[in-house]
């Protein structure tokens, strides 16, 4: 009997170790909740793709995203949340500051974090930034199955309006909006993901998302709804308001804090691709200033991302191979750090492009290949 009990204990111990080992292996697919000091590698793929490119190979149990490429990646750090911002006492634990001046403030609750406040890009304001308060139940890291919501609330005083929105000046003293995202869980899926030249176990979660936006004008103490054209909404929300509904997928691996990949599916198109890329791309450290030009080569449209530069007036000059200036453009104060120029009027060839600040200081000079027919 003593031998039987000993054998039983050995078997139970072995079985328990086997379960723990299996849990350890599966934990490689579980999301990591960020804490102060954790690094977030903020990158993106500026292209759009057909949804077929993002489908899982069921035979190999693999999502292959080796084709994704970010023009550059900003190395960001989660920091402790300050107690007071602009005279307002905040109830938050973490803040993530991005290279374009945006800030996202999170509150820890249970085993997750929730977005509570944000300073976001906005072409409605002179500063190019807007303070919003966030209410809702949507967690930042791997939401479980169910339905969730996020409501963004902001108010703009008339004196804060940018020149682009001066036409609102006579309509009221202040302006407010409410933007509500509703998330309905679609599916969770485990498998392997090939990304950043590595293959890792991954967990993907997908939600169906609907967006409802309301804009209000305050005049003489009265609040009235105003039918703002979707294309005139502030930068951060504009694309979502225009689409109204889409699905959003987030993918997690053990090697990354937060999701390693996040994208939206609208119809048959994959858009708004955000990727934490560590390899084969330009890494810009937290606070480092840099000017990144993409795509290159291009058929005409070129973006100039002024990473960690202030929102201000910038000038573009383009020179041909013999050094003659063939194109100039004055960028107005931007709502974000991504400036756009259309060079499709230029002939096919190699050009030297230079970006200058308002004082005439050259920030960068790079070659761009234009592939016009």
In short:
With 373 residues, the protein is mainly β.
Overview of the molecule:
About 6% of the residues have low confidence. It contains two helices and 25 strands. The chain has two domains: 257 residues, no CATH class; 81 residues, Immunoglobulin-like (Sandwich), CATH 2.60.40.3080. The protein has 373 residues and is mainly beta. A twelve-stranded antiparallel β-barrel has the order 1-4-7-8-9-10-11-12-13-15-16-17.
Report the helical percentage.
Answer: under 10%
Major β-sheet profile: 12 strands, antiparallel, barrel
Specify the oligomeric state.
single chain
Strand/helix succession: HEEEEEEEEEEEEEEHEEEEEEEEEEE
Mean pLDDT: 86
SS summary, helix count: 2
Structural class computed from helices and strand pairing:
mainly beta
Radius of gyration: 24 Å
Which strand order spans the largest sheet, edge to edge or round the barrel? 1-4-7-8-9-10-11-12-13-15-16-17
Number of strands: 25
What overall geometry do the principal axes of the alpha carbons give? globular
Q: Which regions are unreliable across 5 or more consecutive residues at pLDDT < 50? A: 6-11, 13-28
Strand residues, percent:
over 45%
Taking the alpha carbons of the first and last residues, their distance comes to: 88 Å
**Domain module count:** 2
């Amino acid at each position: 009997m003593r031998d039987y009990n000993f054998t039983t204990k050995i078997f139970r111990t072995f079985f328990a170790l086997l379960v723990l080992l299996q849990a350890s292996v599966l934990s490689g697919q579980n999301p990591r909740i960020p804490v102060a000091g954790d690094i977030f590698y903020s990158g993106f793929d500026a292209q759009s793709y057909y949804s077929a490119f993002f489908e899982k190979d069921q035979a190999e149990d693999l999502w292959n995203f080796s084709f994704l490429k970010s023009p550059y990646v900003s190395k960001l750090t989660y920091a402790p949340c300050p107690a007071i911002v602009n005279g307002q006492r905040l109830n938050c634990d973490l803040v993530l500051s991005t290279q374009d001046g945006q800030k996202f403030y999170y509150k820890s609750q249970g085993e997750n974090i929730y977005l509570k406040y944000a300073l976001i890009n906005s072409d409605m304001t002179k500063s190019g930034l807007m303070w919003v308060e966030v209410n809702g139940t949507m967690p930042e890291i791997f939401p479980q199955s169910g339905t969730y919501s996020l409501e963004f609330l902001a108010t703009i005083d008339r004196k804060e309006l940018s020149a682009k929105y001066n036409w609102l000046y006579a309509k009221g003293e202040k302006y407010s909006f409410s933007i509500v995202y509703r998330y309905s869980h679609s599916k969770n899926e485990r498998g392997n993901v090939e990304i950043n030249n590595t293959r890792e176990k991954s967990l993907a979660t997908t939600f169906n998302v609907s967006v409802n936006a309301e804009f209000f004008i305050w005049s003489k103490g009265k609040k009235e709804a105003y039918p703002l054209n979707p294309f005139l909404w502030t930068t951060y929300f504009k694309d979502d308001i225009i689409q109204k509904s889409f699905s959003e997928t987030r993918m997690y691996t053990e090697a990354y804090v937060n999701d390693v990949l996040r994208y939206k599916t609208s119809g048959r198109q994959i858009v708004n691709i955000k990727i934490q890329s560590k390899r084969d791309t330009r890494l810009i450290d937290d606070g480092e200033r840099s000017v990144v030009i993409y795509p290159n080569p291009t058929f005409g449209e070129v973006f100039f991302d002024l990473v960690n530069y202030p929102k201000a007036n910038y000038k573009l000059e383009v020179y041909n191979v013999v050094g003659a200036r063939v194109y100039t453009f004055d960028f107005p104060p931007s709502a974000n750090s991504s400036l756009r120029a259309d060079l499709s009027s230029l002939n096919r060839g190699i050009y030297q492009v230079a970006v200058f600040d308002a004082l005439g200081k050259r920030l960068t000079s790079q070659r761009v290949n234009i592939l016009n027919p």
